[in-house]
């Protein structure tokens, strides 16, 4: 193609063609190699240059990529959804029972938790939800939602009937024999 | 007609030739790199806001019920800087102003002051307007209760018009979003938020 029509040439002139170009290292610059600047090289040229870079540049590039990946992963898992292993035996037929300590941890069911529902807080009866324990904010529980605000619920072992206050809900585990849920700690604030 | 047709045909051929000469690959790669940069910046802002320090606008009409944090926070609303590190570390202390999700409506955030951590005994007055030196019989009802495990007791600074733990009880620790430590707007109110009233 004729040289005069290459758009990238007019916007980002190649430095070696211009004898008066002052070499300005882009930030951050590795000690002895220039990294390609934005938009002036094609991806195949970028890959060739990466293969011949020194090991410090490669490590710096790896650090940058992993920090970017970590930021991206944190944002996605906070806002949209994350992948979480489920331990404990309180949801037995739904999630297989397993131990929270090391050897059992590897056999845990892994679930996809989605956080789009937190925009409108519209849950339905029977949803399996994750929430922070009211007695220990560092622990996360996975239980099934039994009653929503405004519903009346009968506590299973006793005969009292309670009304769920605004902003709270009643959760129970599927395996009722060994499940620490609303029967022990009462209503759960939306968390 | 034929000249018009041939002119249109030659125009289309010229346009196709020019279309083919535009460096689409470079433009596409450039666009992807810039979009990736914008995404990375957005992720960085989200992570800093959620884990390090953020800004919150405390507005009386929507976040707190009326002027519940006077005199600390203005009637018309202040912008406060909220740090997210101390609730996660568990280093909240009595007297901190915290931003928390309201237990009555999870889509609302409120600003209150922590008056009791788990295990503390708090005394509070439900209706302070009823107690007055002019009444012959003092009808100020004072309550005392112990904050249960994993919960905190929050009260607004303006106890006469504040909807807080005296109405909805102790609040689970997990609802706390951050600690407001500094006011940043309006400029004449800039300063650290103190531990006491």
UniProtKB/TrEMBL annotation, chain A:
This protein is called what? Answer: Mitochondrial inner membrane protease subunit 2
Q: Tell me where in or outside the cell this protein is found.
A: Mitochondrion inner membrane
Please, one GO biological process term? protein processing involved in protein targeting to mitochondrion
* MF GO annotations: serine-type endopeptidase activity
The record's listing under CDD domains reads:
S26_SPase_I
Q: How does it sit in the membrane?
A: Single-pass membrane protein
Q: Where is the composition biased (Basic and acidic residues)?
A: 1-12
- Report the family membership: Belongs to the peptidase S26 family. IMP2 subfamily.
- According to the record, the residues making up region (Disordered) are 1-41
UniProt key word Membrane: yes
Q: Which SUPFAM superfamilies match?
A: LexA/Signal peptidase
Q: Which PANTHER family match?
A: MITOCHONDRIAL INNER MEMBRANE PROTEASE SUBUNIT 2 (PTHR46041:SF2)
Q: The organism sits in which domain of life?
A: Eukaryota
Q: Name one GO cellular component term.
A: mitochondrial inner membrane peptidase complex
Q: Where is the Peptidase S26 domain?
A: 74-156, 163-188
Q: Name the Pfam families on file.
A: Peptidase_S26
Keyword Secreted attached: no
User: Which of UniProt's keywords are assigned here?
Assistant: Hydrolase, Membrane, Mitochondrion, Mitochondrion inner membrane, Protease, Transmembrane, Transmembrane helix
Entry annotation: catalytic residues? 90, 143
From TrEMBL, chain B:
Which keywords does this Swiss-Prot/TrEMBL entry list?
A: Hydrolase, Membrane, Mitochondrion, Mitochondrion inner membrane, Protease
Localization per Swiss-Prot or TrEMBL: Mitochondrion inner membrane
Q: Name one GO biological process term.
A: protein processing involved in protein targeting to mitochondrion
Q: Which residues form the active site?
A: 68, 112
Q: Example GO molecular function term? A: serine-type endopeptidase activity
Q: Which InterPro entries match?
A: LexA/Signal_pep-like_sf, Mito_IMP1_subunit, Pept_S26A_signal_pept_1, Peptidase_S26
Q: Mostly located where?
A: mitochondrion
GO cellular component annotations of the record: mitochondrial inner membrane peptidase complex
* Residue intervals of the Peptidase S26 domain: 42-124, 146-185
Q: Family per UniProt? A: Belongs to the peptidase S26 family. IMP1 subfamily.
**PANTHER family under this entry?**
MITOCHONDRIAL INNER MEMBRANE PROTEASE SUBUNIT 1, PROTEASE FAMILY S26 MITOCHONDRIAL INNER MEMBRANE PROTEASE-RELATED
Oligomer status and interactors = Heterodimer of 2 subunits, IMP1A/B and IMP12.
The free-text function statement in the UniProt record for this protein reads: Catalyzes the removal of transit peptides required for the targeting of proteins from the mitochondrial matrix, across the inner membrane, into the inter-membrane space.
Identify this protein by name.
Answer: Mitochondrial inner membrane protease subunit
UniProt organism field: Musa troglodytarum
């Amino acid at each position: 193609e004729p040289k005069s029509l290459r758009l990238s040439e007019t916007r980002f002139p190649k430095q070696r063609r211009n004898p008066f170009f002052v070499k300005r290292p882009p930030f951050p610059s590795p000690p002895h190699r220039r990294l390609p600047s934005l938009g002036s090289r094609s991806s195949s040229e970028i890959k060739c240059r990466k293969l011949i870079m020194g090991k410090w540049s490669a490590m710096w590039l790896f650090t940058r990529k992993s920090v970017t990946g970590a930021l991206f992963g944190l944002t996605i898992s906070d806002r949209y959804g994350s992948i979480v292993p489920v331990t404990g035996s309180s949801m037995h037929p739904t999630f297989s029972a397993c131990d929270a300590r090391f050897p059992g941890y590897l056999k845990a069911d892994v679930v996809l938790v989605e956080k789009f529902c937190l925009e409108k807080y519209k849950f339905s009866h029977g949803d399996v939800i994750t929430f922070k324990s009211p007695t220990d904010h560092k622990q996360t529980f996975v239980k099934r939602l039994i009653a929503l605000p405004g519903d009346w619920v009968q506590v299973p072992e006793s005969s009292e009937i309670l009304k769920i206050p605004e902003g709270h809900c009643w959760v129970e585990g599927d395996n009722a024999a060994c499940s620490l849920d609303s029967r022990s700690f009462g209503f759960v604030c939306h968390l | 007609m034929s000249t018009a047709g041939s002119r249109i045909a030659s125009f289309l051929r010229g346009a196709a030739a020019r279309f083919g000469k535009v460096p689409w690959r470079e433009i596409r790669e450039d666009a992807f790199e810039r979009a990736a940069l914008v995404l990375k910046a957005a992720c960085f802002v989200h992570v800093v806001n959620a884990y390090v320090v953020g800004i919150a606008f405390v507005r009386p009409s929507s976040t707190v019920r009326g002027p519940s944090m006077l005199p600390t926070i203005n009637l018309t609303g202040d912008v406060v800087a909220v740090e997210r590190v101390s609730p996660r570390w568990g280093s909240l202390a009595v007297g901190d102003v915290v931003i928390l999700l309201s237990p009555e409506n999870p889509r609302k955030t409120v600003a209150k002051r922590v008056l009791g951590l788990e295990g503390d005994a708090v005394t509070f007055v439900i209706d302070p307007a009823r107690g007055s030196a002019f009444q012959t019989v003092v009808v100020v009802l004072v309550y005392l209760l112990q904050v249960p495990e994993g919960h905190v007791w929050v009260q607004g600074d303006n106890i006469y018009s504040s909807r807080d733990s005296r109405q909805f009880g102790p609040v689970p620790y997990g609802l706390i979003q951050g600690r407001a430590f500094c006011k940043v707007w309006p400029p004449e109110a800039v300063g650290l938020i103190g531990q006491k009233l």
